[in-house]
Amino acid sequence: MKKTTPVSPEYGLGLQVFKTSCGKTVLGHGGGIPGWVTVSCATADGKVKLAASLNEVDFKDVKLIDKVVDSAFCG
């Protein structure tokens, strides 16, 4: 169920593999529509979880969600 396919980003059955800046692997799913960007993810053992939603104004806001993930799992 956690096996990904060789595309970028790594993706399989709706599950994405996120690599944090501190080297942790986080499993989840992100996405959005014009005006919104979201992410829901957790460590493989489920001890740390994150669900976040952000009003999107432009592309740099999409990159902000990566910083939120890093803060939650590396901070």
UniProtKB/TrEMBL annotation:
Taxonomy, superkingdom: Bacteria
Keywords in alphabetical order: Carboxypeptidase, Hydrolase, Protease
Protein name, per record: D-alanyl-D-alanine carboxypeptidase
Annotated organism of origin: Sinosporangium album
UniProt cross-references to InterPro entries, sorted A to Z: Beta-lactam/transpept-like (IPR012338)
GO molecular-function term, one example from the UniProt record: carboxypeptidase activity
